[in-house]
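Milestone M4 deliverable, item 7.
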Amino acid sequence: MSTNHNLPLEHEILDVQNTDCCIVGGGPAGAVLSLLLARQGISVYLLETHKDFDRDFRGDTIHPAVMQIMEELGLSNSLLQLPHTKMRHLQVKTPQETITFADFSRLKTPYPYIMMLPQVRFLEFITQEAQKYPNFHLILGANVQELITENGIIGGVRYRGQGGWHEVRATLTIGADGRHSKLRQLGDFESVETSPPMDVLWFRLPRQPEEFAGGMGRFGSGKIVVMLDRGDEWQMGYVIPKGGYQKLRAAGLEELKKSIIDTVPELANRIELLRDWSQIAFLCVESSLVKRWYRPGLLLIGDAAHVMSPVGGVGINYAIQDAVVTANILSQPLKKHRVEISDLAKVQQHRELPTRIIQAFQTLIQKRIFAPILTENQTFQPPLLLRLPILRDLPARLIALGIFPVHVQI
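Output delivered:
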């Protein structure tokens, strides 16, 4: 629960900073929102619990909707100068056939592809842009532990780091601290959770130059392997039934490698590079939606407000769209140093429906396609959605652009 400022402090506060907006969490939502507000002359503190942005197997997809936002900020050309690859289609391959699930090249957009860019490079790029504004402050290694509450209104946070306790007082506090949000916990927010029928093991293997470009799902009997083109390597996801990780570990690494080769035989010449479980990251797949994203003085966005399944890789896309809508709606109230509860409600009103729709789309894919393969060893049968020409652009549009277009209005 939050800490009331009127109670005696249990620890000495080394310093107190005052700002218009304190954003907790230096992921895509927090970084982009910081930049958008800083451009408006709004004082921003961005607190990130880690000492850098480098985390393994974070989402590395920059979707066309985000590229259009970058263009509106005048940053798309600079972003494209960073080393990256372009994914123009997603394919599904079974032992019998190969089907294009999403063809981004057909979309009417200046950016008809998904940009594959390490998230650490994207976050460094955005925060470097924000640091051009003197009213932006980035604090790394800031482990937020408490909310400051006065008369029922959140007035900032207390964090540990740099040798002690610090306090940031703010007109508005934003929780953008991801799927395991500390602010969601401290603010005692209630969420509705679903349990997707799968978890994912992420790992990397070398990619050979002659191999296909883009992304592919490989479906075998009872097995699903996702392959994402990262230039000279594959980022690979081995999908397992929910709760099946310990059983897989007990069977041993050799059994896992054999299962991968059964589904993707061409990896046989490099699978031995997978030598230890430390090379494999386990992702417990979750999906949830906070019922009410705000309290007086506090707003949740991105995965803090709605944990996304990795299906379609849309989490970053939706987090950044949340950030843009938040900046559009709250910039003027922040400039006046007064943010009403009705202002915060508007953010949820704009973003909840598209979030619900995409989560329903993800649930459909998980239950109708993934679950039967993983739990019943069924042979994959491509759904009608992938067969009808009139519907073939729908998955690409949902993944690439989202439900409603979001534009920078400030």
